[in-house]
Amino acid sequence: MYYRALAENFPVCYFILMRVLKLLLKLLLIVTLLMAGVGWIALRPLPHSAESVVFSIPSGASLRRAARVIESSGIDLPAWQFELLGRLLGRAAKIKTGSYEVAGQTTALQLVNKLTRGDVSEGQVVLVEGRTFREFRATLNTTPDLAHDSAGLSDAELLARIGATPLNNSASAEGLFFPDTYLFDKGSSDLHLLTRAYQAMQRQLAIAWEIRDKNIPLKNPYELLILASLIEKETGQANDRPQIAAVFINRLRMNMPLQTDPAVIYGLGERFDGNLRRIDLQTDTPWNTYTRRGLPPTPVAMPGFSAINAAAHPPRSDKVYFVAKGDGHSVFSRTLEEHNHAVATYQRGKK
Is the pTM of this model over 0.85? Predict the structure, then answer.
């Protein structure tokens, strides 16, 4: 009976089995085609409108918005394809903010990986030792890869925006930013770079003050910064910086005017035409170290590490004068007679 029933129902079972097999084959074909389609989307080289395409993903952007930004940048990748790929890979919530650059043969999969790793394109700006803050801001303003959010802000407003704490109750931004080579995400704010440079100077200054020679006649880290800026402006020769620091320290101990031209020039501001005259040395300003004793009220430039270190650790010396030789180096003297002889040799002798 059992076998007879099975034989009688065999055509029906066979028909059902074939229907299931056909359905499975169709599903397998559809899945294969979908996988092939996704593979094509993920792995095909993406044409773009230029040799190099740069785009920026704004803060808080969703996967969908990022996909639209990419499509509108000139990369031949429809937004829906990028979004689909990102969701299939589970990366919808992992897109990183920043500026990105696409060049050469790039696939959609590589692009998704790039944005989820945060592999942003970087720019570079060099802040040179001895430059003033006004020159520093001009450098940033002419750096095309930065967002110039500080443009139009006064120095005081800029300091407030980056959370800078005034040193020694001074509202001046001069000297508060550490000169260095800074890498940054293209399209990022110049205020972010300024914050980094400010924090770098605070770290350098705190360390230098902590390990300074405790016998130097300086009251606080800001005075150390002022002295370092004078040293920075007086010479570009690393070997001369410690000796110049020693001369300035000796003069401060003796309550002797520092008589440093860079401070006078800084006080002249935009009136300085490249020629320092006798009348300039005789005209009193807060930065005229010929008419006033002690340190000027603010730094006169951005000092680098070497100048800061020299100010914190001046060598023992009996020298109180120096004059430029004309080759970048200086001659140091103990007495006014020696100094006048050096001036006659290296300055007046050139005329």
Answer: no
Distance CA 86, CA 100 (A): 17
Please state the domain extents for the chain: 1-38, 52-117, 122-206, 212-350
C-alpha distances (whole Å) from 224 to each of 200, 212, 247, 304, 307 are 16, 9, 15, 12, 10
Residue 298 tokens, joined = 């603010």
246, 244, 247, 281: which is closest to 263 by C-alpha?
281
Helix (H, G, I), strand (E, B) or coil at 281: helix
More confident residue, 347 or 75: 75
Class of the domain covering 52-117? alpha beta
pLDDT in tens, 104-155: 888 889 899 988 888 888 888 999 999 999 999 999 999 988 999 999 999 9
- The tens digit of pLDDT for each residue in 227-266 reads 999 999 998 888 999 999 999 999 999 999 999 999 999 9
Please name the residues in contact with 267: beta carbons below 8 A apart, sequence gap of 6 or more.
285, 286, 287, 288, 296
Closest by alpha carbon to 192, among 147, 156, 151, 222?
A: 147
Contact present, 117 and 98 (Cβ < 8 Å)? no
Strands 181-185 and 52-57, by their bridges, are: unpaired
Grouping H, G, I as helix, E, B as strand and the rest as coil, residue 107 is strand
